[in-house]
Amino acid sequence: MLIKDIYKRKIITGEIDASLTDISLIMSENDIGFLPIEDNGKIVGVITDRDIVTRGISKHKRKIKNLLTRDIISINSDSDIKIALDIMGKRQVKRLLVEENNEFIGIISISDIIKSDYSENVLNTLKNIYEEESNEDDTEVDSFYL
After folding, report:
1. Where are the domains of the chain?
2. How far apart are CA 42 and CA 77, in angstroms?
3. Closest by Cα among 123, 53, 44 to 88
4. Where does 3-129 sit in CATH, by number?
5. What is the pTM of this model?
6. Fewer CB in a 10 Å sphere around the end CB: N or C, the chain?
7. Residue 113 to residue 127: CA distance in whole angstroms
8. pLDDT at 134 (0 to 100)
9. Among residues 129, 48, 53, 49, which one has the least CA distance to residue 84?
10. What is the pLDDT, as a whole number, of residue 25?
């Protein structure tokens, strides 16, 4: 099965000069947690709801240009879903921008793949996405009781 068979064709975007509140409102109104960010009509990065919390609110940053991920991970619409799953697992992401002729035309998410008739390798991809890195500094965590 190919990416073009199941990806979301509508791309909702935010502007790089938008406020944190504006971007959060766009996400809330559209029930999305991933938003490509444009600068002069060109997608220059992406921001997630998690980015807003971990990079923005928790660090008191309010400018989107300081919060977004500029390393855009994308896949060609003619690629096989197995390739998308491989990229998602290796890069530990749940969404990819879809491109065709060097233009972004949509978004594919792990949930799009799960909802399709294609389920091979999805469990392994999810394991890779959510794999925790080991604690290498031997920090001990005290157990506690609730």
Report:
1. 3-129
2. 19
3. 123
4. 3.10.580.10
5. 0.78
6. C
7. 15
8. 55
9. 129
10. 96
